[in-house]
Write a structure and sequence with these properties.
The structure holds 2 protein chains of 2 kinds.
Chain A (H helix, E strand, L loop, with lengths): L10 E2 L5 E8 L2 E10 L12 E8 L2 E9 L21 E7 L6 E8 L13 E4 L6 E4 L8 E5 L5 H7 L1 H23 L10 H12 L17 H18 L1 H13 L2
Parallel strand pairs in A: 1-7, 8-10
Antiparallel strand pairs in A: 2-3, 4-5, 4-6, 6-7, 9-10
Chain B lengths: L1 E2 L1 E3 L1 H16 L14 E3 L5 E2 L8 H14 L4 H4 L3 H10 L1 H4 L1 E2 L6 E2 L21 H19 L8 H7 L2 H4 L2 H11 E2 L4 E2 L12 H14 L7 H7 L5 H4 L1
Antiparallel strand pairs in B: 1-4, 2-3, 5-6, 7-8
Helix pairs in contact in B: 2-6, 6-7, 6-9, 9-11
Classes of the chains: A alpha+beta, B mainly alpha.
Chain lengths: 259, 239
Protein backbone atom coordinates (compact mmCIF):
# COMPACT_ATOMS: atom_id res chain seq x y z
CA UNK A 1 0.00 0.00 0.00
CA UNK A 2 1.31 3.44 -0.91
CA UNK A 3 2.11 5.56 2.12
CA UNK A 4 1.95 9.34 2.24
CA UNK A 5 4.30 11.15 4.54
CA UNK A 6 3.32 14.58 5.74
CA UNK A 7 6.70 16.08 6.56
CA UNK A 8 5.25 19.34 7.74
CA UNK A 9 2.83 17.77 10.22
CA UNK A 10 0.17 20.30 9.35
CA UNK A 11 -3.47 19.26 9.48
CA UNK A 12 -5.97 19.42 6.66
CA UNK A 13 -9.14 21.43 7.18
CA UNK A 14 -11.75 19.47 5.31
CA UNK A 15 -14.00 21.21 2.82
CA UNK A 16 -17.15 19.99 4.55
CA UNK A 17 -16.15 21.85 7.70
CA UNK A 18 -16.34 25.18 5.89
CA UNK A 19 -19.26 27.29 4.74
CA UNK A 20 -18.17 30.29 2.74
CA UNK A 21 -20.07 32.42 0.29
CA UNK A 22 -19.94 35.76 -1.49
CA UNK A 23 -22.16 38.72 -0.64
CA UNK A 24 -23.48 40.88 -3.42
CA UNK A 25 -24.90 44.35 -3.69
CA UNK A 26 -26.92 45.18 -6.78
CA UNK A 27 -25.35 42.24 -8.53
CA UNK A 28 -21.76 43.19 -7.74
CA UNK A 29 -19.63 41.05 -5.49
CA UNK A 30 -18.73 43.13 -2.43
CA UNK A 31 -17.58 40.83 0.36
CA UNK A 32 -17.60 37.28 1.63
CA UNK A 33 -19.07 35.52 4.58
CA UNK A 34 -17.40 32.64 6.40
CA UNK A 35 -20.47 31.41 8.17
CA UNK A 36 -19.03 28.18 9.43
CA UNK A 37 -15.59 26.84 10.24
CA UNK A 38 -15.42 23.65 12.25
CA UNK A 39 -12.05 22.82 13.74
CA UNK A 40 -12.71 19.47 15.42
CA UNK A 41 -10.98 18.63 18.70
CA UNK A 42 -9.10 15.74 17.12
CA UNK A 43 -7.01 18.23 15.15
CA UNK A 44 -5.55 19.22 18.53
CA UNK A 45 -4.99 22.82 17.48
CA UNK A 46 -3.70 25.15 20.19
CA UNK A 47 -6.41 27.50 21.42
CA UNK A 48 -4.19 30.52 20.84
CA UNK A 49 -3.46 29.67 17.21
CA UNK A 50 -4.53 32.38 14.76
CA UNK A 51 -7.11 31.84 12.02
CA UNK A 52 -6.56 33.67 8.74
CA UNK A 53 -8.61 33.67 5.57
CA UNK A 54 -7.01 34.74 2.31
CA UNK A 55 -8.90 35.65 -0.83
CA UNK A 56 -6.75 35.39 -3.90
CA UNK A 57 -6.51 35.06 -7.64
CA UNK A 58 -3.33 35.48 -9.64
CA UNK A 59 -1.61 38.63 -8.36
CA UNK A 60 -4.53 39.54 -6.13
CA UNK A 61 -4.31 38.63 -2.46
CA UNK A 62 -6.13 39.94 0.58
CA UNK A 63 -5.98 38.55 4.08
CA UNK A 64 -8.48 38.66 6.92
CA UNK A 65 -7.97 37.67 10.54
CA UNK A 66 -10.75 35.59 12.07
CA UNK A 67 -9.47 35.52 15.64
CA UNK A 68 -8.13 32.40 17.24
CA UNK A 69 -9.10 28.77 17.63
CA UNK A 70 -10.47 29.59 21.08
CA UNK A 71 -12.31 32.68 19.94
CA UNK A 72 -13.52 32.67 16.35
CA UNK A 73 -14.09 36.32 15.55
CA UNK A 74 -14.90 37.55 12.03
CA UNK A 75 -13.35 40.92 11.15
CA UNK A 76 -15.60 43.98 10.96
CA UNK A 77 -15.26 43.97 7.19
CA UNK A 78 -14.62 41.30 4.58
CA UNK A 79 -14.66 43.83 1.76
CA UNK A 80 -13.49 42.56 -1.63
CA UNK A 81 -14.38 45.58 -3.75
CA UNK A 82 -10.73 46.59 -4.17
CA UNK A 83 -9.78 43.27 -5.75
CA UNK A 84 -9.55 42.61 -9.46
CA UNK A 85 -11.24 39.49 -10.88
CA UNK A 86 -13.54 39.12 -7.83
CA UNK A 87 -15.61 36.43 -9.53
CA UNK A 88 -12.56 34.20 -9.73
CA UNK A 89 -11.41 34.54 -6.15
CA UNK A 90 -10.63 31.40 -4.20
CA UNK A 91 -10.03 31.16 -0.49
CA UNK A 92 -7.29 29.77 1.68
CA UNK A 93 -7.90 29.17 5.36
CA UNK A 94 -4.88 28.89 7.63
CA UNK A 95 -4.42 28.15 11.29
CA UNK A 96 -1.04 29.54 12.30
CA UNK A 97 1.17 29.27 15.35
CA UNK A 98 1.64 32.94 16.33
CA UNK A 99 5.07 32.32 17.83
CA UNK A 100 6.98 30.51 15.10
CA UNK A 101 4.56 31.40 12.24
CA UNK A 102 4.24 27.77 11.18
CA UNK A 103 1.08 26.57 9.47
CA UNK A 104 -0.76 24.15 11.74
CA UNK A 105 -3.79 23.48 9.57
CA UNK A 106 -4.79 24.49 6.08
CA UNK A 107 -7.59 24.46 3.54
CA UNK A 108 -6.58 25.61 0.09
CA UNK A 109 -8.34 26.65 -3.12
CA UNK A 110 -11.74 26.85 -1.51
CA UNK A 111 -14.49 28.00 -3.84
CA UNK A 112 -17.62 29.50 -2.31
CA UNK A 113 -20.47 26.99 -2.02
CA UNK A 114 -22.86 28.82 -4.21
CA UNK A 115 -22.08 29.99 -7.71
CA UNK A 116 -20.70 33.48 -7.22
CA UNK A 117 -23.32 34.98 -9.48
CA UNK A 118 -25.93 34.03 -6.90
CA UNK A 119 -26.36 36.10 -3.80
CA UNK A 120 -26.83 34.89 -0.27
CA UNK A 121 -30.53 34.57 0.48
CA UNK A 122 -30.08 35.81 4.02
CA UNK A 123 -27.30 38.32 4.67
CA UNK A 124 -26.39 38.62 8.36
CA UNK A 125 -25.58 41.89 10.10
CA UNK A 126 -24.64 42.65 13.68
CA UNK A 127 -26.39 45.72 15.14
CA UNK A 128 -27.29 47.14 18.53
CA UNK A 129 -30.83 45.84 19.01
CA UNK A 130 -31.38 46.94 22.59
CA UNK A 131 -32.82 43.99 24.46
CA UNK A 132 -33.75 41.87 21.47
CA UNK A 133 -31.52 39.02 20.33
CA UNK A 134 -32.36 39.09 16.66
CA UNK A 135 -34.76 40.63 14.21
CA UNK A 136 -35.43 40.41 10.49
CA UNK A 137 -35.36 43.67 8.57
CA UNK A 138 -36.41 43.95 4.95
CA UNK A 139 -33.70 46.31 3.78
CA UNK A 140 -31.82 44.09 1.33
CA UNK A 141 -31.97 44.28 -2.45
CA UNK A 142 -35.59 44.80 -3.55
CA UNK A 143 -36.61 44.81 0.10
CA UNK A 144 -35.11 41.39 0.76
CA UNK A 145 -34.60 40.05 4.30
CA UNK A 146 -31.52 40.65 6.43
CA UNK A 147 -30.99 38.81 9.70
CA UNK A 148 -29.83 41.32 12.32
CA UNK A 149 -28.25 39.93 15.46
CA UNK A 150 -27.68 42.01 18.57
CA UNK A 151 -24.06 43.14 18.65
CA UNK A 152 -24.36 43.98 22.38
CA UNK A 153 -24.37 40.32 23.34
CA UNK A 154 -20.84 39.24 24.29
CA UNK A 155 -19.23 36.86 21.78
CA UNK A 156 -22.39 36.88 19.68
CA UNK A 157 -20.56 36.61 16.36
CA UNK A 158 -18.90 33.45 17.54
CA UNK A 159 -22.16 32.06 18.88
CA UNK A 160 -24.17 32.98 15.79
CA UNK A 161 -21.72 31.42 13.40
CA UNK A 162 -20.60 28.34 15.27
CA UNK A 163 -23.10 27.42 17.95
CA UNK A 164 -25.43 24.67 16.73
CA UNK A 165 -28.00 25.52 19.39
CA UNK A 166 -28.26 29.09 18.13
CA UNK A 167 -28.50 27.78 14.57
CA UNK A 168 -31.31 25.37 15.43
CA UNK A 169 -33.19 27.74 17.70
CA UNK A 170 -33.10 30.82 15.50
CA UNK A 171 -33.11 29.74 11.88
CA UNK A 172 -36.41 27.82 11.89
CA UNK A 173 -38.14 30.95 13.17
CA UNK A 174 -36.30 33.07 10.64
CA UNK A 175 -37.46 30.84 7.82
CA UNK A 176 -41.02 30.90 9.10
CA UNK A 177 -41.00 34.67 9.40
CA UNK A 178 -39.46 35.33 6.00
CA UNK A 179 -41.82 32.99 4.15
CA UNK A 180 -44.82 34.39 6.01
CA UNK A 181 -43.79 37.95 5.21
CA UNK A 182 -43.06 37.05 1.59
CA UNK A 183 -46.49 35.56 1.03
CA UNK A 184 -48.84 37.39 3.41
CA UNK A 185 -47.31 40.88 3.36
CA UNK A 186 -45.78 41.13 -0.11
CA UNK A 187 -47.43 38.36 -2.09
CA UNK A 188 -45.58 36.42 -4.78
CA UNK A 189 -46.81 37.34 -8.24
CA UNK A 190 -45.75 34.05 -9.85
CA UNK A 191 -44.55 30.81 -8.29
CA UNK A 192 -42.82 29.70 -11.47
CA UNK A 193 -41.34 33.05 -12.51
CA UNK A 194 -41.46 35.62 -9.72
CA UNK A 195 -40.54 39.17 -10.66
CA UNK A 196 -38.79 39.86 -7.34
CA UNK A 197 -35.36 38.25 -7.13
CA UNK A 198 -35.40 37.50 -3.43
CA UNK A 199 -38.79 35.77 -3.78
CA UNK A 200 -37.25 33.63 -6.48
CA UNK A 201 -34.25 32.80 -4.27
CA UNK A 202 -36.40 31.81 -1.31
CA UNK A 203 -38.71 29.69 -3.44
CA UNK A 204 -35.62 27.93 -4.78
CA UNK A 205 -34.52 27.36 -1.22
CA UNK A 206 -37.84 25.74 -0.28
CA UNK A 207 -37.56 23.46 -3.32
CA UNK A 208 -34.04 22.53 -2.26
CA UNK A 209 -35.58 21.46 1.04
CA UNK A 210 -37.74 19.12 -1.03
CA UNK A 211 -41.00 21.03 -0.49
CA UNK A 212 -42.88 22.27 -3.55
CA UNK A 213 -44.80 25.54 -3.03
CA UNK A 214 -48.56 25.82 -3.58
CA UNK A 215 -49.47 27.21 -7.01
CA UNK A 216 -50.83 30.53 -5.68
CA UNK A 217 -48.89 32.65 -3.18
CA UNK A 218 -50.77 35.92 -3.62
CA UNK A 219 -53.40 36.55 -0.90
CA UNK A 220 -55.62 38.74 -3.08
CA UNK A 221 -55.98 35.99 -5.68
CA UNK A 222 -59.34 34.24 -5.31
CA UNK A 223 -57.62 30.83 -5.60
CA UNK A 224 -55.30 31.58 -2.66
CA UNK A 225 -55.54 28.81 -0.07
CA UNK A 226 -54.38 30.17 3.31
CA UNK A 227 -54.34 26.82 5.09
CA UNK A 228 -52.35 25.20 2.32
CA UNK A 229 -49.80 28.00 2.41
CA UNK A 230 -49.42 27.78 6.19
CA UNK A 231 -48.97 24.00 5.92
CA UNK A 232 -46.34 24.55 3.21
CA UNK A 233 -44.40 26.95 5.47
CA UNK A 234 -44.62 24.42 8.32
CA UNK A 235 -43.30 21.70 6.06
CA UNK A 236 -40.36 23.81 4.92
CA UNK A 237 -39.40 24.57 8.53
CA UNK A 238 -39.69 20.91 9.45
CA UNK A 239 -37.61 19.85 6.42
CA UNK A 240 -34.95 22.39 7.37
CA UNK A 241 -34.84 21.08 10.95
CA UNK A 242 -34.60 17.49 9.73
CA UNK A 243 -31.84 18.37 7.29
CA UNK A 244 -29.71 19.99 9.97
CA UNK A 245 -30.69 17.82 12.90
CA UNK A 246 -27.30 16.12 12.90
CA UNK A 247 -25.67 19.44 13.88
CA UNK A 248 -28.03 19.78 16.81
CA UNK A 249 -27.54 16.16 17.87
CA UNK A 250 -23.78 16.65 17.70
CA UNK A 251 -24.15 19.71 19.91
CA UNK A 252 -26.25 17.78 22.47
CA UNK A 253 -23.73 14.95 22.44
CA UNK A 254 -20.88 17.38 23.17
CA UNK A 255 -22.92 18.98 25.96
CA UNK A 256 -23.48 15.59 27.53
CA UNK A 257 -19.79 14.74 27.27
CA UNK A 258 -18.66 18.12 28.65
CA UNK A 259 -21.51 19.33 30.85
CA UNK B 1 -2.21 62.87 -27.74
CA UNK B 2 -4.90 60.29 -28.32
CA UNK B 3 -7.90 59.14 -26.32
CA UNK B 4 -7.43 55.74 -24.70
CA UNK B 5 -9.44 53.00 -26.37
CA UNK B 6 -10.43 49.39 -25.77
CA UNK B 7 -9.54 46.91 -28.48
CA UNK B 8 -12.59 44.95 -29.60
CA UNK B 9 -12.41 41.31 -30.84
CA UNK B 10 -12.47 42.56 -34.46
CA UNK B 11 -9.51 44.82 -33.69
CA UNK B 12 -7.64 42.09 -31.85
CA UNK B 13 -8.06 39.84 -34.85
CA UNK B 14 -6.69 42.54 -37.19
CA UNK B 15 -3.81 43.26 -34.80
CA UNK B 16 -2.96 39.55 -34.71
CA UNK B 17 -2.95 39.44 -38.52
CA UNK B 18 -0.62 42.43 -38.58
CA UNK B 19 1.81 40.79 -36.12
CA UNK B 20 1.81 37.62 -38.20
CA UNK B 21 2.34 39.59 -41.39
CA UNK B 22 5.30 41.43 -39.88
CA UNK B 23 7.07 38.14 -39.28
CA UNK B 24 6.98 37.52 -43.02
CA UNK B 25 7.22 41.04 -44.30
CA UNK B 26 8.89 43.78 -42.25
CA UNK B 27 7.17 46.47 -44.30
CA UNK B 28 3.63 45.18 -43.77
CA UNK B 29 1.23 48.09 -43.40
CA UNK B 30 -0.11 48.80 -39.94
CA UNK B 31 -3.93 48.82 -39.98
CA UNK B 32 -5.81 51.72 -38.44
CA UNK B 33 -7.56 50.16 -35.46
CA UNK B 34 -8.43 53.43 -33.73
CA UNK B 35 -11.89 53.39 -35.20
CA UNK B 36 -15.11 51.43 -34.65
CA UNK B 37 -15.68 48.50 -34.77
CA UNK B 38 -12.02 47.65 -34.06
CA UNK B 39 -11.87 49.63 -30.85
CA UNK B 40 -14.07 51.88 -28.75
CA UNK B 41 -13.19 54.79 -26.52
CA UNK B 42 -12.41 54.02 -22.91
CA UNK B 43 -14.56 55.68 -20.32
CA UNK B 44 -13.74 58.02 -18.62
CA UNK B 45 -11.93 59.99 -21.27
CA UNK B 46 -8.16 59.72 -20.80
CA UNK B 47 -5.50 60.86 -23.24
CA UNK B 48 -2.08 59.36 -23.70
CA UNK B 49 0.90 60.35 -25.80
CA UNK B 50 1.30 58.05 -28.77
CA UNK B 51 4.83 59.28 -29.49
CA UNK B 52 6.23 59.12 -26.00
CA UNK B 53 9.40 57.12 -25.38
CA UNK B 54 10.10 55.19 -22.21
CA UNK B 55 13.57 54.36 -20.96
CA UNK B 56 12.37 51.43 -18.89
CA UNK B 57 9.35 49.36 -17.98
CA UNK B 58 9.23 51.38 -14.78
CA UNK B 59 8.71 54.62 -16.69
CA UNK B 60 5.99 52.97 -18.76
CA UNK B 61 4.19 51.71 -15.65
CA UNK B 62 4.53 55.07 -13.89
CA UNK B 63 3.12 56.87 -16.89
CA UNK B 64 0.06 54.62 -17.12
CA UNK B 65 -0.46 54.64 -13.38
CA UNK B 66 -0.42 58.42 -13.30
CA UNK B 67 -2.89 58.70 -16.18
CA UNK B 68 -5.42 56.46 -14.49
CA UNK B 69 -4.81 57.84 -11.02
CA UNK B 70 -5.56 61.37 -12.17
CA UNK B 71 -8.97 60.29 -13.42
CA UNK B 72 -9.60 58.17 -10.32
CA UNK B 73 -9.73 54.89 -12.24
CA UNK B 74 -8.91 52.12 -9.77
CA UNK B 75 -6.48 49.36 -10.66
CA UNK B 76 -9.03 46.65 -9.93
CA UNK B 77 -11.26 48.08 -12.67
CA UNK B 78 -8.62 47.88 -15.39
CA UNK B 79 -6.36 44.95 -14.50
CA UNK B 80 -8.67 42.47 -16.19
CA UNK B 81 -9.54 44.74 -19.12
CA UNK B 82 -7.60 42.84 -21.77
CA UNK B 83 -8.82 45.06 -24.62
CA UNK B 84 -7.31 48.12 -22.94
CA UNK B 85 -3.85 46.53 -22.64
CA UNK B 86 -3.97 45.16 -26.16
CA UNK B 87 -4.85 48.59 -27.50
CA UNK B 88 -1.99 50.25 -25.58
CA UNK B 89 0.42 47.65 -26.99
CA UNK B 90 -0.95 48.44 -30.44
CA UNK B 91 -0.46 52.16 -29.79
CA UNK B 92 3.15 51.74 -28.67
CA UNK B 93 3.89 48.76 -30.86
CA UNK B 94 7.05 50.23 -32.42
CA UNK B 95 8.89 50.85 -29.15
CA UNK B 96 7.61 47.52 -27.81
CA UNK B 97 9.38 45.71 -30.60
CA UNK B 98 13.09 45.99 -31.10
CA UNK B 99 15.38 45.72 -34.06
CA UNK B 100 18.10 43.18 -34.58
CA UNK B 101 21.31 45.24 -34.75
CA UNK B 102 22.99 42.82 -37.18
CA UNK B 103 20.17 42.45 -39.68
CA UNK B 104 18.15 45.56 -39.02
CA UNK B 105 15.01 43.43 -38.93
CA UNK B 106 12.31 44.02 -36.40
CA UNK B 107 12.14 41.27 -33.78
CA UNK B 108 8.59 40.17 -33.13
CA UNK B 109 8.17 38.18 -29.97
CA UNK B 110 5.39 35.79 -29.00
CA UNK B 111 1.86 37.08 -29.41
CA UNK B 112 1.13 37.17 -25.66
CA UNK B 113 3.61 40.04 -25.33
CA UNK B 114 1.28 42.27 -27.37
CA UNK B 115 -2.18 40.74 -27.23
CA UNK B 116 -3.29 40.57 -23.64
CA UNK B 117 -4.53 37.15 -22.65
CA UNK B 118 -6.43 35.78 -19.68
CA UNK B 119 -4.56 32.50 -19.98
CA UNK B 120 -2.76 31.79 -16.69
CA UNK B 121 0.36 30.75 -18.61
CA UNK B 122 0.64 34.07 -20.42
CA UNK B 123 -1.12 36.91 -18.68
CA UNK B 124 1.97 38.26 -16.88
CA UNK B 125 3.99 38.35 -20.11
CA UNK B 126 2.14 41.25 -21.73
CA UNK B 127 4.59 44.10 -22.23
CA UNK B 128 2.19 46.82 -21.02
CA UNK B 129 -0.20 45.07 -18.63
CA UNK B 130 2.61 43.13 -16.92
CA UNK B 131 4.64 46.17 -15.77
CA UNK B 132 1.51 48.04 -14.69
CA UNK B 133 0.29 45.04 -12.72
CA UNK B 134 3.59 44.79 -10.82
CA UNK B 135 3.92 48.53 -10.31
CA UNK B 136 0.38 48.90 -9.02
CA UNK B 137 0.98 46.13 -6.51
CA UNK B 138 4.44 46.96 -5.23
CA UNK B 139 5.07 50.65 -5.92
CA UNK B 140 8.02 52.36 -7.50
CA UNK B 141 10.75 51.17 -5.12
CA UNK B 142 10.39 47.42 -5.00
CA UNK B 143 9.04 47.19 -8.57
CA UNK B 144 12.40 48.33 -9.89
CA UNK B 145 13.81 44.84 -9.70
CA UNK B 146 11.27 43.73 -12.30
CA UNK B 147 10.96 46.93 -14.29
CA UNK B 148 14.54 48.12 -14.73
CA UNK B 149 14.84 46.78 -18.27
CA UNK B 150 13.84 48.33 -21.63
CA UNK B 151 10.16 48.05 -22.40
CA UNK B 152 10.61 45.44 -25.13
CA UNK B 153 12.61 43.08 -22.90
CA UNK B 154 11.22 40.34 -20.70
CA UNK B 155 13.62 39.62 -17.84
CA UNK B 156 14.02 36.59 -15.60
CA UNK B 157 12.66 38.33 -12.50
CA UNK B 158 9.35 38.70 -14.30
CA UNK B 159 9.45 35.18 -15.69
CA UNK B 160 10.38 33.48 -12.42
CA UNK B 161 8.43 35.59 -9.93
CA UNK B 162 5.49 37.26 -11.69
CA UNK B 163 4.44 33.93 -13.16
CA UNK B 164 3.93 32.52 -9.67
CA UNK B 165 0.89 33.83 -7.85
CA UNK B 166 2.20 33.03 -4.43
CA UNK B 167 5.46 34.91 -4.92
CA UNK B 168 4.25 38.01 -6.75
CA UNK B 169 1.34 38.60 -4.40
CA UNK B 170 3.45 38.74 -1.22
CA UNK B 171 4.97 42.22 -0.67
CA UNK B 172 7.36 40.87 1.97
CA UNK B 173 8.86 38.42 -0.54
CA UNK B 174 9.29 41.19 -3.09
CA UNK B 175 11.10 43.23 -0.44
CA UNK B 176 13.39 40.25 0.21
CA UNK B 177 14.12 39.93 -3.50
CA UNK B 178 14.92 43.61 -3.66
CA UNK B 179 17.20 43.45 -0.63
CA UNK B 180 19.05 40.38 -1.88
CA UNK B 181 19.47 41.10 -5.54
CA UNK B 182 19.14 44.82 -6.25
CA UNK B 183 22.32 46.82 -6.75
CA UNK B 184 21.41 50.32 -5.62
CA UNK B 185 24.60 51.89 -6.96
CA UNK B 186 24.11 50.49 -10.46
CA UNK B 187 20.33 50.78 -10.47
CA UNK B 188 19.97 47.21 -11.74
CA UNK B 189 20.04 43.66 -10.36
CA UNK B 190 23.34 42.46 -8.93
CA UNK B 191 25.57 40.72 -11.40
CA UNK B 192 24.91 36.99 -11.50
CA UNK B 193 21.60 37.16 -9.66
CA UNK B 194 19.78 35.67 -12.63
CA UNK B 195 22.37 32.98 -13.36
CA UNK B 196 21.13 29.43 -13.61
CA UNK B 197 22.31 26.56 -11.45
CA UNK B 198 24.32 28.63 -9.00
CA UNK B 199 23.83 28.77 -5.23
CA UNK B 200 21.65 31.50 -3.82
CA UNK B 201 20.52 32.90 -7.17
CA UNK B 202 17.00 33.81 -8.23
CA UNK B 203 15.92 30.33 -9.30
CA UNK B 204 17.22 28.84 -6.04
CA UNK B 205 15.30 31.54 -4.17
CA UNK B 206 12.10 30.41 -5.87
CA UNK B 207 12.74 26.78 -4.90
CA UNK B 208 13.56 27.62 -1.28
CA UNK B 209 10.48 29.83 -0.87
CA UNK B 210 8.32 27.09 -2.35
CA UNK B 211 9.62 24.87 0.46
CA UNK B 212 8.97 27.58 3.08
CA UNK B 213 5.45 27.91 1.75
CA UNK B 214 4.68 24.36 2.88
CA UNK B 215 5.76 25.03 6.44
CA UNK B 216 5.48 28.72 7.21
CA UNK B 217 2.74 31.27 6.97
CA UNK B 218 4.98 33.40 4.77
CA UNK B 219 2.55 36.30 4.83
CA UNK B 220 3.06 36.67 8.58
CA UNK B 221 6.84 36.83 8.32
CA UNK B 222 8.64 40.13 7.92
CA UNK B 223 11.22 40.52 5.16
CA UNK B 224 13.91 40.42 7.87
CA UNK B 225 12.57 37.14 9.28
CA UNK B 226 12.50 35.57 5.82
CA UNK B 227 16.07 36.64 5.14
CA UNK B 228 17.15 35.10 8.44
CA UNK B 229 15.49 31.82 7.52
CA UNK B 230 17.29 31.56 4.18
CA UNK B 231 20.03 28.91 4.09
CA UNK B 232 23.73 29.65 3.98
CA UNK B 233 23.92 29.67 0.19
CA UNK B 234 22.20 33.09 0.25
CA UNK B 235 24.78 34.68 2.59
CA UNK B 236 26.68 36.19 -0.31
CA UNK B 237 23.58 38.06 -1.42
CA UNK B 238 22.69 39.32 2.03
CA UNK B 239 25.78 41.50 2.15
Amino acid sequence: MKQRINHTGRKRIRREWIHINFNRHKGSLVSFNLSRLDLPAHLELPLGAHIFVEAGYRTELKRFCFGTVASFSPPPSTDLTDMAHPENLRFRILVVNPINKKILALADRIAPEEPSRRKSILPVEFRDLGNRIWIIVYEGDEGGPILCINSRIPDIQNIALRDSRFFMEVYPYVIREVLTYMVFVEGVDSVTDPSVDWHRDWLEFTKLMGIQPPPILKPDDSRFDKDRVLAWIDNVVEAFCNKYSHSFEEFIRKMEENP
Amino acid sequence: MIAVRIMMPEGESKFREYITALRENASAACPDLNIEPYSSEFSPHIEVDSDISFNSKLELAEYINEKFRKTDVKREKIIGENGLWTWLAYLWFDPLTCFDSSTGNRIIREEAKYICSSDYRDYYRHLVAGPYRIYSLHGSDFSKIFLYSPIHEHNDFIEQIASRQFLISHPNLIEVLFRLYWDESKEKPKSGAQSRGKPGTLRRFVKVIQQFELTYDVYSLSAEEIIRLLPEEFNKWKE
